[in-house]
Amino acid sequence: MGFFMFLACFQVSAQDVKVDDIINNYLKNTGGAENWKQVKSMKMTGKMSMQNMEFPLVIYRMPEKKQRIEASIQGKEIIQAYDGTDAWWINPFMSGPEAQPMPDEMASEMKEETFEDVFIDYKKKGHQAELEGKETIDGAETYKVKLTKKGGDIRYYFFETENYVPIMIRSTVKEGQAKGQNIDTMLSDYQEVEGFVIPHFMEVRMNGQAGQKIILEAITFNEKMDESMFAFPKKQ
C-alpha cells in the first residue's frame, strides 16, 4: 500500500510542473533575463550548409528587430536584412545585384523574429504560454510548450526536462506552396559565451526532412554597429 501511495505522490508531483517554472528555469540557465536585457547587439559568425554546399555566414542583430544576414556563395554575396520596418535582400542568383524588397513569405518570417528572447516578460508583451505535456524528441524527453503570440502566431517549444533549454522549435508555413507544412528548428551544442548559454548548431527540418544547417563559430555581444546597415540601401 505504501509503495503505491509513493508512486501516486510521485506522479502528482511530476505533473505539477507549471509552464512558468519551465520558462523561468530556461531564462535562468541561459544567462538570466536581466542580463539579456543589457545586451545591445549580437554578431554571430559561422557557416551554413545546404544542398551539398557550405559557405561562410555572418549575422548581425540589434533591438528591437533589426537583423542582417550575410553569406558568400560561389564568390557572390547574398544579404537579407530587416530594419524594423522594411525587409529587403540582395540575391544575385534570384533577383540580380541590386537590393530588392524581400518576398512576402521570407519577410513575414524575418519580421516575427525579435532581438529579445520571446519568453522575457512574455505576459507583458501580450503572449500566452501553455504546457501541453511531455514529448520525446530525438530520444530526449521534453516539455512541450505552446506559445501564442499577441498577433496570433503560434509556435511550439520543446524544452529538455533535464536542463530546460529548447532543443526544437516548431512553426508552420503560412504562405506559398509549402503552406501548412511544419518547420522544425533543431537546437544543440549549447555553449557558454560571456555568461550566456547559446546553441551553436541549428538544423532546419521541413516535415521531418533535413534542410539547412548552421554552425556558429564565434559570438560577440555589444559590438558597436552602424544602424544604417539594416536599412534598405539608398540609390547612388
Question: Could you explain the architecture of this structure?
Answer:
The structure is a single chain. With 236 residues, the protein is of the alpha+beta class. It has one domain: Lipoprotein localisation LolA/LolB/LppX (outer membrane lipoprotein receptor (LolB), chain A), CATH 2.50.20. Helix content is 17%, strand content 48%. The chain has 4 helices and 13 strands. It has helices at residues 2-15, 19-29, 33-37, 104-112, and strands spanning 42-50, 53-62, 66-73, 76-82, 87-91, 96-101, 128-137, 140-148, 154-160, 166-172, 182-193, 196-206, 209-221. The chain has a 13-stranded antiparallel beta sheet. The longest helix is centred in the N-terminal third of the chain and has 14 residues, at 2-15. The protein starts with a helix and ends in a 15-residue tail after the last strand. The model is unreliable at 1-14 (pLDDT under 50).
Question: Helix and strand layout, with pairings?
Answer:
Elements: H1 2-15, H2 19-29, H3 33-37, E1 42-50, E2 53-62, E3 66-73, E4 76-82, E5 87-91, E6 96-101, H4 104-112, E7 128-137, E8 140-148, E9 154-160, E10 166-172, E11 182-193, E12 196-206, E13 209-221
Antiparallel strand pairs: 1-2, 1-13, 2-3, 3-4, 4-5, 5-6, 7-8, 8-9, 9-10, 10-11, 11-12, 12-13
